[in-house]
Amino acid sequence: MTKKEFENLQKRLSYSNESAWKVLNEEEEVDDFSKSYMDFMRKGKTERTLVEESIKILEENGYVPIEKADPKKEVKAYKVYRSKALAIYRIPKEIENGFNVIASHIDSPRIDLKPRPVIEDTDVALAKTHYYGGIKKYQWFNIPLAIVGVIVKEDGESVKINVGNEPGDPVFVISDLLPHLDRDPNKKCRDINGEMLNLIIGSKPLVFEKMDSAVKINILKILNEKYGIVEEDLMSAELELVPAFEPRELGFDRSMIAAYGHDDKICAYASLKALLDSKKIARPTVVVFFDKEEIGSDGSTGAKNQFWLPPLKKLLSLKGKDVNVFFDELIENTAVLSSDVSAAVNPTFKDVHEMNNAAILGHGIVVTKYTGAYGKAGANDADAEFVWKIRKLLNDNKVPWQTGELGKVDVGGGGTVAKFFAERGMHVIDMGPALLGMHSPYEVVSKADLYSSYLAYKAFISNFKM
Asked: Which one of 149, 263, 298, 440 has the fewest CB atoms closer than 10 angstroms to its CB?
């Protein structure tokens, strides 16, 4: 066999995972899409603010609350669930044999304030916290933080809080110990526990004579004057700490985006835009944003609840369908993309990856056949036939894609919302871009992977049939 014959055989039989930048010809479109995404992320750092921003975009594009939808026409509607989850429906007049669903989650690892947060210690006012999701605690020290959320007052009035994100706002900090006093010879670094994540919120006493809790009372006075609240109102509040810095382009070539909350708001935005930009839909389509994925999808707004199904059943009933007979068949023929992020290989820490099955930054959307850990426990594992259909869809539509796992066997692993669809009998697979620094306050994504995800979701909405 000659060298040329070998090279031709190698090219024909072997799989080559190439950079998405080589495939994408729309560099200007990639850049414009990235800028719109960054603007979305500035406004939607929490579940509530992301839902609010999504509704603005939907209504600008003709979508209405599902209660106002006319079932006799093509339905373009949305359903907000408890302010922190969202389902978007695009349902044609006639419904045949199943749905296409894209599901992502809009919660991100963060730090929450406790129900009784405000304390004073050594003339410093602090807020006690409880972290949410899988974080590396040390990453949250000494960075500017914003407080975002809602407080429900005694009279039932809801007050929105957003301090630290706008120019001129004060910010808040969890302060670390200086290295001069952190020299335990028996340890490389100090052990950090959750009770150390105390947020500095003030230091000025209300009066200058020595009085107990004068700094704390001054903080409560400021909150009362600005928001009309008292300390007890903080018990009926959801207040989240998120990084105060904005999304920024990363690198001399501006090829990446650094931001808080790519996991998994990036998939939410890509699927939202894909739905709005699709001129046609292959089948009835639902795009769902869940809460609580980072803590196991528990709670009423998590994927275990599947809040998007009852409005769909009602809609089918209004269209004259016998839901009891019709619905189970539809569900069995439903295809779901669990749109969640994957882990890109960090060149500094390659040892945690099995490189033949690792996702590379900038090589397109990552298709993940199975998730879970330690023998695929807790996984959805897509069947070969469904993987083939997705593979063909991506290839036919020239979407850059790759496969990937979340680290080496017995080292990595993780779960998504996929299994909560699979256990109802739907066809499900995980698909999303790969990140560097996942779960950190400043995650990194390639613009090429963001745009590849948008193209993949758009192809799924426009062309996929079982």
From this structure: 298
Per-residue pLDDT of 221-276, as tens digits, reads 999 999 999 999 999 999 999 999 999 999 999 999 999 999 999 999 999 999 99
* Residue type present at position 72: K
115 in the same domain as 98 = no
**CA 393 – CA 399 distance, rounded (Å):** 9
Q: Is residue 252 part of a domain?
A: no
Query: Quick one: 283 and 414 in the same domain?
Result: yes
Residue 141: partners with Cβ closer than 8 Å, 6 or more residues away: 174, 175, 176
Q: Is a pLDDT exceeding 70 seen at residue 150?
A: yes
Contact indicator for 307, 85 with CB cutoff of 8 Å:
yes
- Give CA–CA dist 414/352, Å, rounded: 14
Asked whether the beta carbons of 207 and 214 are under 8 A apart, the reply is yes
Which tokens sit at 1? 């066999």
Its pTM stands at 0.95
Beta bridge mates, 415: none
Q: Domain range holding 407?
A: 3-108+260-463
Distances in whole angstroms, Cα of residue 51 to Cα of each of 106, 335, 438? 9, 24, 22
- Whether 398 and 305 have beta carbons less than 8 Å apart is answered as no
CA dist 427 and 418 (Å) reads 9
Structure tokens that stand for 58 in this block:
């939907």
Looking at the fold, whether 339 and 441 belong to one and the same domain comes out as yes
* CATH value at residue 196: 2.30.250.10
Q: Among 169-173, 264-268, 371-375, 390-394, which stretch is predicted with the lowest mean pLDDT?
A: 371-375
Side by side, the strands of the sheet bearing 443-446 are: 248-250, 256-259, 443-446, 434-436, 342-343
Q: Cα 73–339–105 angle (5° rounding)? A: 85
Same domain, 88 and 27: yes
* Nearest-angstrom CA–CA distance, 120 and 337: 48
Q: Would residue 248 count as lying in a domain?
A: no
Residues near 253 by Cβ (< 8 Å), separated by ≥ 6? none
Query: Which contacts (CB < 8 Å, 24+ apart) does range 27-35 have?
Result: 29/451, 30/447, 30/448, 30/450, 30/451, 31/254, 31/447, 33/273, 33/447, 33/450, 33/451, 33/454, 34/249, 34/257, 34/447, 34/450, 34/451
User: Cα separation of 142 and 140, whole Å?
Assistant: 7
In a 3-state reduction of DSSP, which class is residue 21?
A: helix
